[in-house]
């Protein structure tokens, strides 16, 4: 996802310089070498997000920071941004971490800085979908989010985004908002078949832990919202491929507690993540131009039911892309550029539905081939 964000930033006319800060400089040099438009804007700095002082030194002077590291380190990067005095955006905090990040609102506000949390594909796009509908409704009954990814055929295992995050979403209880309260559900609960726009089509979806549910019921609480959930289809894997990964988790390979292996303590999860690392897309996948079903054609759908002037309405917003990972890198690139240009209201820490103006955002996505369509159902 970070590779896509770098490519988008480098190709954007309003961006003068892009610094890739990473501890794997060999990999970042390869990423930079694959970028054709704006390559001269890119520089590389060795950085470790667990080294606070070094991270602050790297970030100082930046107009905005786009955090694409694993969500475990979001708070590290935010605290470094506070000290370096730069704006911040990321791709999500998986509900619980997002809530911890929101607690930094007063510190960012006092520093005159703005942070936009969960500004990826999902979370991110559904939040802005919800804002679009909420602006046109007096009351809201529910917000239902469906993330549909056309998977590779057969039992081919390929992961569309960070493997540790997918494992977390597999084993951690999803949170839903129901009857005005946050409720913990069982992993993979709430299964239903959902029709996405072709070529995605009919997919079997289930609940998953996600950041949208952490913020949307709070943001639109004054409109009386009673329900909010996020569902996805096996994180972009086919049912056959998912069954293989789930078996590993069921056997204990997703566990955090170290086990003794010939006198050496080993976390099963660490071994699982390491072995599965070979199943991520190849480095050059994000510069391919021809769309095909192996590239996770994707639609992100948000359904919002409510009322306007006493008349019931249901909004269905769908954002469709041939390359499913594209919005996750493009959306925070747009947010980072808006933050740097002073286009995001602030200061403070905000979810996307508060910070991002929907129509200009959808227009920016459309310029990159990511199209959003709106359907409204109402009584005649």
Summarize the structure in short.
With 380 residues, this protein is of the alpha/beta class. The chain has helices spanning 2-11, 25-33, 52-59, 74-84, 96-102, 105-111, 125-134, 163-171, 212-219, 239-250, 268-276, 326-340, 352-355, 358-367, and strands spanning 18-22, 42-46, 64-67, 87-90, 114-116, 139-149, 175-178, 181-184, 192-195, 202-207, 227-232, 259-261, 264-266, 298-308, 311-321, 348-350, 371-378. Strands 6, 7, 8, 9, 10, 11, 14, 15 and 17 form a 9-stranded mixed beta sheet that branches.
N-to-C CA distance: 44 Å
- Give the total of beta strands: 17
Query: How many DSSP H or I helices?
Result: 14
- Coarse morphology: globular
The structural domain count equals 2
Q: Please report the first level of CATH classification, the CATH class of the largest domain.
A: Alpha Beta
Oligomer: single chain
Helix content: 25-40%
CATH superfamily of the largest domain: Dihydrodipicolinate Reductase, domain 2
Structural class: alpha/beta
Biggest β-sheet strands, sense, barrel? 9 strands, mixed
Radius of gyration: 20 Å
Strand content: 25-35%
CATH architectural category of the largest domain = 2-Layer Sandwich
CATH topology of the largest domain: the name is Dihydrodipicolinate Reductase, domain 2
Give the mean pLDDT. 93
Poorly predicted spans: 289-294
């Amino acid at each position: 996802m970070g590779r896509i964000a770098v490519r988008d930033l480098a190709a954007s006319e309003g961006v003068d310089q892009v610094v890739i800060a990473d501890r794997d400089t060999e990999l970042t040099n390869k990423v930079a070498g694959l970028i054709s438009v704006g390559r001269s804007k890119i520089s590389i700095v060795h950085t470790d997000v667990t080294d606070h002082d070094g991270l602050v030194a790297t970030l100082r002077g930046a107009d905005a920071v786009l955090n694409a590291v694993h969500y475990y380190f979001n708070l590290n990067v935010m605290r470094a941004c506070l000290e370096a005095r730069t704006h911040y955006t990321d791709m999500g905090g998986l509900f619980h971490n997002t809530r911890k990040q929101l607690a930094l609102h007063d510190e960012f506000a006092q520093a005159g800085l703005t942070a936009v949390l969960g500004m990826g594909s999902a979370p991110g796009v559904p939040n802005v979908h919800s804002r679009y509908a909420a602006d046109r409704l007096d009351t809201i009954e529910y917000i239902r989010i469906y993330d549909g990814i056309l998977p590779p055929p057969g039992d081919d295992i390929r992961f569309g985004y960070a493997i540790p995050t997918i494992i977390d979403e597999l084993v951690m209880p999803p949170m839903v908002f129901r009857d005005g309260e946050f409720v913990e559900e069982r992993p993979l609960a709430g299964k239903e078949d959902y029709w996405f726009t072709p070529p995605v089509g009919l997919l079997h979806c289930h609940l998953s832990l996600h950041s949208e549910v952490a913020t949307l019921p709070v943001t639109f609480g004054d409109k009386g919202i009673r329900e909010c959930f996020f569902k996805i289809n096996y994180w972009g894997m086919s049912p056959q491929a998912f069954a293989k990964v789930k078996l590993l988790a069921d056997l204990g390979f997703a566990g955090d507690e170290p086990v003794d292996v010939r006198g050496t303590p080993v976390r099963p999860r660490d071994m699982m993540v390491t072995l599965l690392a070979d199943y991520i897309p190849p480095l050059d996948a994000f510069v391919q131009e021809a769309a095909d079903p192996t590239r996770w054609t994707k639609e992100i759908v948000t359904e919002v039911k409510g009322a306007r002037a006493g008349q019931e309405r249901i909004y269905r917003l769908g954002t469709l892309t041939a390359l499913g990972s594209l919005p996750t890198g493009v959306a925070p690139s747009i947010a980072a550029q808006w933050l740097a240009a002073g286009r995001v209201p602030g200061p403070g820490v905000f979810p996307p539905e508060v910070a991002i103006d929907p129509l200009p955002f959808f227009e920016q996505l459309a310029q990159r081939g990511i199209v959003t369509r709106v359907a409204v159902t109402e009584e005649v």
